[in-house]
């Protein structure tokens, strides 16, 4: 017997999940999912807490179907399953862009492993996102610099 998702599991809880839910539709735009991931808070799990001044994050790394390492990332704390919390009990929130800035070149990521509101991105996909997308604060700063360079408008 296959377990059916609970009502809460099937309902998007934030903008990222709304975009993930739309991802399978014909009119879906994958750019919307990427932008939502980059500009919203997401959650990683760590074996260590960040209470101490010299604390370091040791994020939960899983293996995908091809046995390649992927960083486990969650769109909402309620999406974290108990089995993951046993391995890494500390839930830490950060922007998706910060995760992509800090992830290595050999590591992929999986959003909401085992959930219907999720996806996986390999190292080559992460490299493309880093190349093709700017964070909202970077884009705003670039627009302001471009406007200043153009001079006053008459």
From TrEMBL:
Ranges of residues in domain SseB protein N-terminal: 17-127
Protein name according to UniProt: SseB family protein
Pfam families from the UniProt entry: SseB
Organism of provenance: Arthrobacter terricola
Entry superkingdom: Bacteria
InterPro entries: SseB_N (IPR009839)
